[in-house]
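Annex B, item 7. Sequence and structure tokens for protein A, then protein B.
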Amino acid sequence: MSRAGTWAHTLCAGVIVASACSAETVRPDDRFAALRADALARAQVFRTAFRPDVLARGSAEEGEIACRFLPTDATGTTPKFDCELPTGTRVKVKYGNTPEIPAEVAASRLLAALGFGADRVVLARRVRCYGCPASPFYARRVAGWTHLEGLLRRTRNYDAYRDFEWVAIERKLEGAAIEAGGQQGWGFFELHQIDPGRGGAERADVDALRLMAAFLAHWDNKESNQRLVCLPPDEGDDSCRRPLAMLQDVGATFGPRKVDLEAWRSTPVWADVDRCRLSMKRLPHGGSTFEDVEISDRGRRLLADRLSRLSASQIETLFVDARFPGDVEQWVATFRGKVEEIAARAPCPG
């Protein structure tokens, strides 16, 4: 078992619920909430330095993948299912004609290239799913509505398979998800709780994350679409020494209506240019958990520096490899225009 897995297993005893824990182990009280709050206060938002190698041509695509269907609960509205690879690794497969697939592939790669925490999401030309029903997402949903989950599990034929073409394969960033009681992820309104005095990220780093969310038009930012994760420790202990606040589900981006070039181009980064104020109130759902905030100049310059270091060919690769629709040159031009909004402006006040 990995160190992160050991940590998760330890906390399942009733302290903090991690990704591998059963819901039955949850016993929320003030102590557990305090432990989550402590992890959030000490959280970082950058996981690595600038990593443009993430955008190497062809690294966002895999050929044919075989896996075994896992009849887990159906959540959200995008067709998807969990599947187990021959190695035992669990992956999430998003399928169907949905713009969330190219959006999540591109946004996850971009976040990783800039050094933020991100899951690894790639395209697969074909997934051969053994035991999959004809429509796995809706089969799971109907089974849940009718309380026939057990029947769905018993009637799986793992000798038969179904193929799904051009799907997204999501592999979780290694580490245990930190949850207190039923509280999953984190909201943008909580980011002010990150405290550099307790080892958490500096204000500039946090502002860079907020600004990145505005750059992507990441309006679907409810708490469950972000994740507070305990990264594997460098040394053998069961404490969470390296908490990380990361964006988890970034399929509703490049829009706001998910991979919409004209909408993305016409959505400005700044709500108030002079004050360096960000707002998502005009986006769907009023921007969900994103509260209006004024960005520090250090945070602006930090993100501007990393975005500006991406070459035109790397930006083109980002969109080509994710199979974005329409004119790729226009996507690249819009991307660079938004970088200019951040980089080529007067310093932020204060």
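Protein B:
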Amino acid sequence: MGTDSFTIFHVIAQLRLGAGRVVADAAIEQARGRGHRVTVCVSADADEHWRTDPRLVSELARHNIAVRTIGDFFHRRTDLLHEAAARLRELRTGSTGTVIVHAHTAMAAAVGHWAGPGALIATCHGWGIGRTAEMDLQDSLAYQLCDSVVTYSRYWADRLVSDLAVPSPVILPMGLDLERFPRLPEKQRCLSDPLRLVTVCELTPRKGVDLLLNAMPAVWERRPEAELHIVGHGESTADLQLLAAKLDPGMTRVFFHGAVPHPYDQLANYDLFVLASRSDNLPVAILEAMLAGLPIVATAVGGVPDLISAAGCGRVLPPESSAALAEATLAMAEQGRRKLAALGRKGERFGRRRFDGRKANLEIERIYRAALRRGRRKRPHGQ
């Protein structure tokens, strides 16, 4: 490590899905491209649907980045948070140079604070539906401990201020390792081919796949050949398969592909990406769809409307409406494949300018250094 490098601990509940992908890419760029020493710390697995992805662990290991389980900070129990902090403090004590803790949940920020780093940064990746007032209070108190709180959209920055009283959150551009997303070949599809829709997401109520499935009968009335391909897995998988079987007896037009290691490679096989989220921030799946040159239909949640508007590559619609999903999907499809391809190319050009992980990491490093210069964060007793 150089004299100007940091020891960085990324603390995330589970290294999985979109947030896990972003953290892994950031960690690799910080270690490989910036010369920092990086460790990723995760919570003990909560259950079968909340587990760290071993493929991301293996990928980080190839770059000499360790993934350490430091205890259970998923369930918000104070005693468990302190145990996780003690383990993180042990890891920090054995480190050299300036220590940065970069938390990726509010409870991870509390753990990081009690570990006593040189600077504590938190990224808010958004939160789901059905939160309690107690969770809002806990998260508000945890974020107050941070030197800086960052997020990926104006929508979530405003929510942090209005719901959690977080002062001056920073909007940070999301970054991905674009080397993992090479330009895909042009789609070689005939006009007689079926319209192929795809969604890539965790199969949970928050992602609204039930709404998308319930939109399909209206789509089939005008496009009976249309196919819906669902990529992902989660706690709602069985319920969604039952719903699909009722809507599409024989399952000839709805296909479940399960968890695919790198879905980007297959996106060139589809015509239109659809995401029906009830709540989101800036879904990595939409970023991947843009980079793959797919036009997009998505619900107006989180930072999605601003992103689609800036890219000019699709349509947004109100959440919680299967009818609106069907109408928007049909309106896009009826423009024809040539127009859809042109919209997809616009999104790809935008994405390759906007989502460069190297640029994003330079910005987060600037935030690290600014926090260290201020040096005002109240340290826990005994630090």
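Comment on protein B: The longest strand covers residues 6-12.
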